[in-house]
Amino acid sequence: MNNLIEYCKDHSGSRLIQKRYETGTNDEKNQIFDKISNNILSLAKDVFGNYVIQKILDNNTVDQEKNSKIMTSLEGNIQELTLHMYGCRVIQKAIEVN
User: Fold this and answer.
1) pLDDT tens digit string along 7-37?
2) In the chain, at which end, N or C, are there fewer CB atoms within 10 A of the end residue's CB?
């Protein structure tokens, strides 16, 4: 958990975090979200990190509070993200799930 942001930005690490978020307990999901919550914008623009953000958005249909926190983190950067190669995927997913 200490190097979670670095794992999110790594090919294998990103896949591991996505799988863990999908299959983990609510406590594990909360721990993952708490660790990445201050880095959402940078992860949204990362080649592998954007998939982690998308997975969280996709798996929080019941817990809209996390999705709201993600959207708050992205506010003010929507135009930049829509023009970004990886950020646009996060914006598309956010629109899709909200």
Assistant:
1) 999 999 999 999 999 999 999 999 999 999 9
2) N
Domain boundaries, the chain: 4-97
Instruction: Report the pLDDT value the prediction gives residue 6, as an integer from 0 to 100.
Output: 96
Whole-angstrom distance, CA of residue 16 vs CA of residue 76: 30
Q: What is residue 90's predicted lDDT score, i.e. its pLDDT?
A: 96
Looking at this protein, which amino acid is placed at residue 2? N
CB atoms within 10 A of CB 5: 19
Residue 20 to residue 42: CA distance in whole angstroms = 21
Decide: residue 7, CB within 10 A, 0-12 exposed, 13-18 middle, 19+ buried: buried
- Distance, in Å, from the CA atom of 57 to the CA atom of 51, rounded to the nearest integer, reads 10
* Residue 20: Cβ-neighbour burial (10 angstroms; 0-12, 13-18, 19+): middle
pTM of full prediction above 0.85 = yes
Query: Cβ(33)–Cβ(25) under 8 Å?
Result: no
